[in-house]
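Fill in residues.
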């Protein structure tokens, strides 16, 4: 399956407790929803609250073997200096050095609208995802038909803050994550909200 570099995108993710990308089964399924190739550079328009937008580029680097599986390294993956992504039978998985051996399932293979799934983020926090809808979303790179996946980060203990963070991702088949936002302290109106939108894709 040929890769259309002019209409492809990849992913994002979070801040203190976060994120991001899309699904697949085998190599072809990966191309269908979340193409990852060494040398690809995804540039996002990033904004904090109502502040000035800035560009941030994420470069896909050579794959690494971690715990017996192949993961693509992605530098400056939105709010992470270094992160790893892979497509497995489970779906699209994400991991970062901050979370040790844990991985997050950003998009679950075969998920239906309204379905939930949960990943362990740290020893004290979990991250719950839900496939909310499929809808058109407009970003600087163009208009995409995308899946909207919401997420909530919450403490495992009842004494913890009900919502440590919440947000959403838009995942477009054949492109990956094209848009997203995260609010670090969901119960606080003054908490910082960060958003991002796909601007362009290059291959070097």
């Amino acid at each position: 399956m040929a890769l259309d570099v002019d209409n492809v995108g990849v992913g994002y993710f979070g801040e203190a407790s976060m994120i991001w990308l899309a699904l697949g089964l085998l190599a072809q399924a990966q191309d269908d929803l979340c193409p990852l190739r060494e040398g690809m550079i995804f540039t996002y328009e990033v904004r904090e609250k109502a502040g000035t937008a800035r560009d941030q580029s994420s470069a896909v680097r050579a794959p690494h073997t971690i715990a017996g599986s192949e993961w693509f390294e992605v530098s400056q993956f939105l709010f992470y200096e270094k992160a790893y992504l892979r497509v497995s039978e489970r779906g699209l998985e994400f991991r970062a050095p901050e979370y040790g051996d844990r991985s997050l399932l950003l998009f679950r293979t075969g998920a239906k609208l309204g379905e939930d799934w949960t990943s362990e983020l740290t020893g004290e926090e979990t991250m719950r995802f839900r496939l909310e809808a499929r809808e058109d979303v407009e970003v600087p790179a163009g208009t995409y038909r995308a899946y909207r996946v919401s997420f909530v980060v919450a403490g495992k203990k009842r004494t913890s803050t009900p919502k440590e963070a919440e947000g959403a991702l838009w995942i477009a088949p054949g492109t990956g994550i094209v848009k997203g936002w995260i609010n670090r302290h969901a119960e606080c109106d003054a908490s910082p909200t960060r958003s991002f939108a796909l601007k362009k894709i290059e291959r070097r």
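The domain at 5-203 is CATH 2.40.360 (YmcC-like fold).
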